[in-house]
Design brief:
Length: 234
């Protein structure tokens, strides 16, 4: 029978991933220099990369979302990479509990930002396409957009979980297939290396997709308020 780790194991490693991220942040920023060291240089490179990404998606007002988007990427990446380490390490993102928690965090923050930047009226008008569609279409559009908005956390959670859980199953299948079980003698072929490269690639891509979708959701929710603000300033 296939062994599945207990839910508390995923929780423990999710906490360890958070601790690793906090330690990295503290070490990279504890003694900031004009000529940065390796850790500070790496932290600045990551920040500048996500700053360009988020501003490119959401506009200048999206600059304040860079810490959230960047932190989500790094945290999910660490969680994903844990699954490539030997037992007893597991990838917390291979548990639906972890991915649902992350998706709900993003969903609630997006709604909060939508209400804060647009106001209640503007927030509801965002779903109804206020000023963009005829008034008789607005109720139907509101319903469709509301369902789509409620589906976003489900989509985020299941996409990340399915890809990470599926990656682990594929890796195990490849290991079994390449292990030559019918042979009596061990053949030292480096089959682990391409599997490891595949695992790292999937881990990075899935962390980036989650962070990218977060930036897109924030940009879509807040674009109307800042478009109007820009128009008034002209």
């Amino acid at each position: 029978m296939e062994h599945h780790p207990a839910p508390v194991v995923f929780t423990v490693f999710a906490g360890i991933a958070g601790a690793v991220l906090v330690i990295f942040a503290l070490l990279a920023t504890r003694n900031m220099q004009r000529r940065p060291g390796r850790l500070q240089n790496l932290a600045e490179l990551i920040y500048e990369g996500f700053e360009g990404l988020v501003v490119g998606i959401a506009g200048e007002h999206g600059r304040k979302y860079v810490p959230l988007v960047g932190t989500l990427f790094l945290y999910i990446l660490i969680c994903n990479l844990f699954g490539l380490l030997p037992a007893p390490f597991v990838a917390p993102t291979a548990s639906l509990n972890t991915t649902v928690a992350l998706a709900l965090l993003v969903f609630l923050y997006v709604q909060f930002e939508g209400i804060r930047t647009n106001g209640i009226r503007g927030y509801l008008g965002h779903f109804a396409g206020a000023g963009k569609v005829p008034i008789f279409i607005a109720p139907l559009l509101f319903l469709v957009e509301l369902i789509g908005e409620l589906a976003k956390p489900f989509s985020l959670a299941v996409r990340l979980y399915a890809n990470m859980f599926g990656k682990e199953q594929v890796v195990m299948a490849l290991i079994v297939a390449l292990a030559f079980p019918a042979l009596k003698y061990y053949i030292p072929l480096p089959v682990q290396f391409p599997i490891l490269i595949l695992g790292v690639l999937v881990s990075v891509v899935q962390a980036f997709v989650f962070a990218l979708l977060t930036a897109i959701y924030l940009g879509l929710m807040t674009e109307h308020a800042h478009e109007h603000g820009h128009e008034h300033s002209l």
